[in-house]
Design goal:
By secondary structure, the protein is mainly alpha-helical. It has two domains: 34 residues; 127 residues, Orthogonal Bundle (Cytochrome Bc1 Complex, Chain D, domain 2), CATH 1.10.760. It is 52% helix and 0% strand. The chain has eight helices and no strands. The radius of gyration is 23 Å and the shape is elongated.
């Protein structure tokens, strides 16, 4: 009797899994898994999770002083590594896909980004952010380069003041 009940339960479970798989396939074929702008609740929940759980080094201090030279070094590093997604000014100027990504590329001048500590910004630059387009730069950039980027993020120029990256403006990036 018990084996008959188990067999019926397994058949029912298999049928349910098959139905879920078929509905998932229909959903995928009709609409696919589209990139979409996260909703208000999703944005708030992920913002809190990043700030308090997912992003480390909250109490780490930037060992590099905020001198003009160090900020300029950060801007130079930014213009080589970060501009493709964040624009030259860190505020997505001229980046055609910034708002289309899911989640959208944040303006680094935004209150949400500026609320991170220096240590958290360094951690994000070093490790990237899971489920966003933010890549890890550990092993690509040196620690000093990453700290200089933090200084630049803290001292961004006005939005649009540096123009758009040449790669998006149609200008040649190769010199003749």
């Amino acid at each position: 009797m018990k084996s008959g009940i188990r067999k019926a339960a397994l058949v029912a479970l298999s049928g349910l899994l098959l139905l879920i798989a078929l509905l998932g396939g229909v959903f995928f074929l009709l609409g696919g898994v589209k990139a979409r702008r996260p909703g208000e609740w999703e944005t708030a929940a992920m913002g809190r999770a990043k700030r308090w759980i997912l992003v480390g080094d909250k109490s780490t201090q930037n060992p590099m002083p905020a001198t003009k030279e160090n900020i300029a070094m950060g801007q130079q590093n930014f213009s080589h590594y970060c501009f493709a997604c964040h624009g030259l000014d860190g505020q997505n100027t001229g980046v055609p896909f910034a708002e289309s990504m899911s989640p959208p590329v944040p303006s680094l001048a935004s209150a949400d980004v500026q609320a991170y500590t220096d240590g958290q910004l360094h951690w994000i630059i070093s490790n990237g952010l899971w489920l966003t387009g933010m890549p890890a730069s550990k092993g690509i950039l040196s620690d000093d380069e990453m700290w200089s980027l933090v200084l630049y993020i803290r001292n961004l120029p006005p939005a649009g003041s540096l123009g758009e990256p040449a790669m998006y403006s149609g200008e040649s990036v190769l010199e003749p």
